[in-house]
Fold this sequence. Notes:
The chain has 136 residues and is mainly alpha-helical. Helix content is 57%, strand content 3%. The chain has 3 helices and 2 strands, in the order ββααα. It has a two-stranded antiparallel ribbon.
Amino acid sequence: MPVLSDNLFSHRFFLCQPVExxxxxxxxxxxxxxxxxxxxxxxxxxxxxxxxxxxxxxxRAVVMDAKERKIASLLQAVRTLRSEKVKKRKVxxxxxxxxxxxxxxxxxxxxxxxxxxxxxxxxRKEGRNAKSDKxx
Length: 136
């Protein structure tokens, strides 16, 4: 059996060595949202994790003056414009993708119809050739 350093004791003084153990930190238990919804209230996790960074309200303890307010509103307007532009771009890209898929489907359908017609004609000819080649 291995001898661990934290369970040795001094034979001379019959005193236990002081045991120093590090505090164990466990990762929080992660429960999926779907499972949480199915759990009864008593079993749902209620301990909200502490925030590492303070939120906006905790950070902003000073009242902004007129100039700062103006700058903040201008920045917010710029961000709003950018997000709107991104949204429009996303919508346009989705429409283009949809149109391309429709076009591809139409082309595939036309190709399939032509292929079907070609195969039909081929087998019709094969049937005629087989009939004419057959000895009676």
